[in-house]
Amino acid sequence: MAAGPEDIDIELFMNWFREDPNLNKHYECWNLVCNQSGFDSKSLKRVYRDRNGEMFVYMYRQMLARYDAERLGLNLPLTRPLDNYRAPIEEGYEPNGSLVTIFGSRKANSVLDNTTVQEIEKYRVSIKQAIEMGKFHDGTEIDINLLGAVVSGANMRNYYGGLHARGHVAIASISNKPGVMSATRVASRDPVFWRWHRHIDNLINLWEEKQEPNDFSNSPPVKLRDVILAFKNELPIGHEETEEEEAAAFGEKTFGGGNFDKDVSNNEYVTNELQTRMKSKFWTYFGLTENIDYLFPREFYYFFRVENTSSSPFDVTFRVFLVPEELAESRRHWIELDKFKGGTIPPNSKTVVCRSSDMSSVVRQPPRKTRNELDVAHGTTRNPLEAFYDCGWPYHLLLPRGRRGGMKFKLLVFISDWSQDKVPRKSRFGSISFGGNESLYSKYPDNKPMGYPLDRPFKNNSYQETFAGLNNAIIRDVSIKWVDEWQEVFDDD
Ligand SMILES: [Cu+2]
What we know:
It is built from 13 helices and 11 strands. By secondary structure, the protein is α+β, with helices and mostly antiparallel strands. A 6-stranded mixed sheet has the order 5-4-11-10-7-8. It has a 3-stranded antiparallel sheet with strand order 3-6-9, covered by helices on one side. A hairpin with a 2-residue loop joins strand 4 and strand 5. Helix 4 packs antiparallel against helix 7. The two termini are 45 Å apart. The model has no long low-confidence stretch (mean pLDDT 89).
């Protein structure tokens, strides 16, 4: 029978993303280091990391936001939640390459076994009851950290069953031998992984939607005047050790001082369009070598124009987010691009703060850029302390791919007070957004809720109303274009 368009499995168009070995590696590392627990090597006791439940919610939500941005780029439907446990799971999955010898395959339209369905439906009812009441069964008040921990399976497992983890196991057991959903290093390859997590995120969102919007009325005494983007390779700077200082000096000279109030949208270095392209490399996994395609961003700098209107120096935290224009009203679809301490803005001054795209707080640091560096990520780290240094989103997936003709996004920059937030960057290791706490017992390095200022419902369900009139926030239009070529600023061997 000839295959008609209706026979095409549209999920195959997302394989490049789901099967990306470094995306898989990120997810595995994150599970080892940040999710749930670690073991104290002295006491041999299980230790839950600071804010592990909140991190569970935030990390998966960020993965989903990125996944949906890629789906939208391809005009595919957004991820549908797997919320009917009894319905056949339309998406089948056969592990890629040599993984098929290790993990089971799942046929399209498979169903979960009935006993499991009854069990997880019961857990869901209990969780929804708790959300309804605002309290868990033992009277403990719900907060995002506890809710995440309960749903993930880290807390109150006897009562709430650890719905998230239970679902993973249940789905993995559909096949003759356990499917990829049973193993963190490969789970996100399966389309059902994303559907299951959309379901879990929606459940958690039921509680979040009952909360009040953030109150930003007590905003810091700084005016964020502009965010300017420029491609790294086009700037008149060198790309050796002093690159960042040269870029900062260029920014101050071109966009600061006497030029601070000038419109620079027609400046030859300024762009409103970011770019991505696909590269390919050979990759060996379980003895099989295959040629894989992976996404790569064109490197850029941000230049933030900031005015301190007070007579005291002010330490700023910058928070940068990106969302496809079509999804801008969907709070959970905003992608964190960066979060950092932007230095001290002198009293009554107009300053340009310069930031390289490769420093991003979400990215595994130092970033891996060349084909050879990407290979380093393929080993499995079983030691959580070593894995900390591997934690973070892969640099090559920093930006969503966008579209051939360009895809419209909104860029949000939000400034908060570093003296309250304390977002550190001591060393260029790991990711401070997804790795966070360096040791088992240390605190997560940001006092604000994860995803702040997008952690609470929008005012009147409108992102524009939420950020309108704030001195410390700015929203800009940017486009992301998927292109074929550009001049690299580093050696990609
Ligand atoms: Cu999961």
